[in-house]
Design a protein that fits this description.
The complex is a heterodimer of chains A (272) and B (435). Chain A folds into two domains: 1-112; 113-272, no CATH class. Helices cover 78% and strands 0% of the residues of chain A. Chain A has ten helices and no strands. In chain A, helix 5 runs antiparallel to helix 7 (167-198) and helix 7 (167-198) crosses helix 9 (215-237). Chain B has 435 residues and is α/β, with parallel strands linked by helices. Chain B has three domains: 2-154, 2-Layer Sandwich (Beta Polymerase, domain 2), CATH 3.30.460.30; 164-305, NAD(P)-binding Rossmann-like Domain (Rossmann fold, 3-Layer(aba) Sandwich), CATH 3.40.50.720; 340-434, no CATH class. Chain B contains 19 helices and ten strands. Classes of the chains: A mainly alpha (272), B alpha/beta (435). Chains A and B meet through helix 5, helix 7 and helix 10 of A and helix 9 and helix 14 of B.
Chain lengths: 272, 435
């Protein structure tokens, strides 16, 4: 059962890639169905874990990655259906599959320590995960923007030219994804700060480690600075198009680094 | 029942003749009514576009094709001798293949052009509405739509602009998305500038500004295109407002130098600028294309794209033809399996008649039985006949080889001395069995 979402995500990734390369409409529809089935199976899994543990499985990096994959799948499906644009699927589904390996291998649901028993904790985690999902979409949009931009600049109209929507569309969608992500990132960080202040007196060593000096918090603040700059730069100094695309790629690399590497190996405050 | 396609197209007839046999002029509906009035065929569809005039008909034998081909000249009052050499006549699978190739754009003047599928659809819709079609035509045209759609979605046949102006507009759309709300600046007021302006105007751009060294010629073109004229020395501010710039002046030195465009780009804050340089010699310094967010294409670049697209379309031809063949095979299999239907119907009627006759013969012996037992006997005999016929019916319907169908039909007719053809092909029972 733990493997089912991963299998379906992998199937969707293969189908999206085949659809992107060969542009067979039926394969495309199959890819969407596979992804939807994956998200559904994942929903069921998370639901079962919630019932089993008595709380949402958001404790620990693995659980957070699982929830992130689920949210990204859901957000992407929403974007695909509202924009009727399937070409991003190849990129998103590959990312999903890569990340879904982690919760599929490590299936334990961490118990929730007393310090996390606060509604603020759920708000904190969910906002940040939603922000990350938006940033992942922005990153994919940015990457495809650059690929298409290079083709048009090089006057060699080929693979991506026939498969991707216009630069303008990619840029507008990128801008939206960054803005939405930035709002949730801000909310997530602020709520985290408030909550950390509330539990200051806890003896839990992890709470004691809650400071800007902790790598997880430091990099989170750094990514907030980068995304704030991205939002500001677009509005104020015209960093749209290619620059915005590069920026959303670099910024998401930082987010992913913080999420996975720092989350597993470096942080002393967020290792639940 | 046989399928026929009779017509002429840009491949077989000169434009003067095609103009004369335009069914669309008087209305396709009228032509359909005229065809029905002359009882040309059982089912008819008229396809008439500027490049072809074709009639698809279902009839008993080759006389149908002859009637259709005469109809072309009679309906349009053209001597048949003038017409006959240009008409092609296809029947059976060839007729289906012809229609599928037409619907897929394989028979079009510009191979892969997308309009034809819509034209085939409306030709069928007109005939269907007027009840000029039945099972065979319905299936034929729906298979043609499938073939057309598959070729469009599974091959790159219709992809890529094959003229310079369309290539430029497709590029602009790839950069800006919708061109509505975009501003165009045209430099120069000559023929080329005018032509491009007309194309862009058709895309419903927000505004077209024309700049020329002599304001009067700019004003003339502006009047023609519904745009505004810009004085030559106000060029820089016009550049600032524009999203798409078309340069077509006769200047011998570049009008838009890299330095000038660099200055123009600065206040645009990353807003993209698409420059189409169709002037020879070029109006825009080539190195300007290196500037960020400037997309510069000259006439050679566009022509190279057109050549590439043409080559790509040619490469997709065999793939498209293969799809058409697949659909033809599927349709022909269905069409031929239909031919066995009268035999199947006759066979079933024969068995049922025997059953009824035997029940009638045994009536004196059965009359003593209680009603339940009688109905049981009725049911059992019916089931036995059903069971006996089940496998043969399935097997017969699965036969798709024409020669085999004839052989089977012949054998069954002899073995069971079935009535041949006379009463067997009632349309109602036929469609019932066929479904």
């Amino acid at each position: 059962m733990h493997l089912l979402p991963l299998v379906l995500y992998a199937l969707a990734a293969a189908a999206y890639t085949a659809h992107f390369a060969r542009r067979d409409e039926r394969v495309g529809r199959f890819a969407t169905a596979a992804l939807a089935a994956g998200v559904l199976a994942h929903t069921y899994l998370i639901g079962m874990q919630t019932v089993e543990a008595g709380h949402a499985p958001l404790v620990g990096t693995t659980a957070a990655i699982s929830a992130f994959v689920w949210l990204l799948g859901l957000s992407y499906l929403y974007v695909e259906l509202t924009a009727s644009e399937r070409s991003m699927g190849a990129f998103v589904a590959v990312l999903l599959t890569g990340l879904a390996v982690i919760p599929a291998v490590d299936t334990t649901v961490s118990p929730r320590p007393p310090v996390l028993q606060s509604p603020l904790f759920t708000v904190h985690v969910m906002s940040l995960l939603f922000a990350y999902a938006s940033f992942a979409l922005a990153c994919v949009l940015g990457v495809t923007y650059v690929l298409l931009f290079k083709e048009i600049k090089a006057k060699h109209l080929g693979f991506f030219y026939t498969r991707l929507p216009s630069l303008q569309t990619l840029d507008v969608m990128n801008s939206r994804a960054i803005t939405v992500g930035w709002i949730f990132l801000t909310v997530g960080c602020v709520v985290g700060g408030i909550w950390a202040a509330q539990v200051q007196n806890s003896t839990d060593p992890r709470v004691q480690a809650m400071s800007l000096a902790d790598p997880k918090i430091l990099v989170a603040v750094l990514s907030w600075v980068i995304y704030s700059f991205a939002v500001f730069a677009r509005k104020a100094i015209g960093w749209s198009g290619r620059r915005a695309a590069y920026l959303s790629g670099v910024a998401f690399a930082v987010v992913l680094l913080n999420f996975v590497l720092v989350g597993y190996f470096l942080t002393k405050s967020h290792n639940f | 029942m046989r399928l026929y396609a009779v017509g002429l197209s840009h491949r077989t007839a000169p434009v003067e003749l095609r103009e004369c046999v335009d069914f669309a002029r008087g209305g396709v509906a009228q032509a359909l009514v005229a065809l029905a009035a002359r009882a040309v065929g059982r089912e008819v569809v008229v396809l008439s576009t500027c490049n072809r005039a074709e009639i698809y008909a279902v009839g008993e034998n080759d006389a149908t094709a002859d009637r259709v081909s005469r109809f072309f000249s009679e309906y349009h009052n053209i001597p048949h001798e003038r017409m006959a050499d240009h008409l092609y006549i296809r029947s059976g699978a060839d007729a289906a293949r012809h229609l599928f190739r037409v619907a897929a754009g394989l028979d079009s003047l510009v191979v892969g052009e997308p309009q034809i599928l819509g034209q085939v659809k409306s030709a069928y819709a007109a005939a269907h509405e007027g009840r000029f079609t039945a099972a065979l035509m319905n299936r034929l045209f729906h298979s043609a739509f499938t073939a057309g759609k598959r070729v469009r979605s599974e091959t790159g046949l219709g992809e890529g602009a094959v003229s310079v102006s369309y290539a430029a507009i497709a590029l602009a759309k790839k950069i800006f998305g919708d061109l509505k709300g975009r501003s165009v600046l045209i430099l120069g007021a000559g023929e080329m500038a005018k032509l491009t302006g007309v194309y862009l105007q058709a895309q419903q751009v927000r505004q077209i500004a024309i700049a020329s060294r002599t304001l009067v010629t700019a004003e003339n073109l502006a009047g023609h295109l519904g745009g505004t004229a810009v004085a030559w020395d106000a060029l820089d501010s016009a550049l600032h407002a524009a999203d798409i710039v078309v340069t077509a002046t006769g200047a011998s030195e570049p009008v838009l130098t890299r330095a000038r465009l660099e200055d123009a780009m600065r206040p645009r804050r990353g807003r993209a600028l698409f420059i189409i340089d169709i002037a020879v010699p070029r109006d825009v310094e080539a190195s300007a294309g290196d500037l960020d967010q400037v997309f510069l294409y000259n006439i050679d670049d566009l022509q190279a794209i057109v050549q590439e697209n043409l080559a790509r379309r040619t490469a997709e031809l065999s793939h498209a033809e293969a799809i058409v063949e697949e659909e033809v095979a599927r349709f022909v299999a269905w069409m031929q399996s239909r031919e066995i239907v009268p035999t199947v119907v006759a066979l079933r009627q024969r068995f049922e008649a025997i059953r009824q006759a035997e029940l009638a013969r045994l009536e004196p012996k059965l009359s003593g039985l209680p009603p339940e037992a009688r109905s049981r006997v009725e049911e059992i005999t019916r089931l036995i006949v059903e069971k006996l016929l089940l496998t043969p019916t399935e097997q017969l319907k699965a036969v798709s080889d024409e020669a085999m169908i004839v052989a089977y039909a012949d054998a069954l007719n002899r073995l069971f001395s079935l009535p041949t053809e006379k009463n067997a092909s009632e349309p109602d029972t036929e469609s019932e069995v066929a479904s």
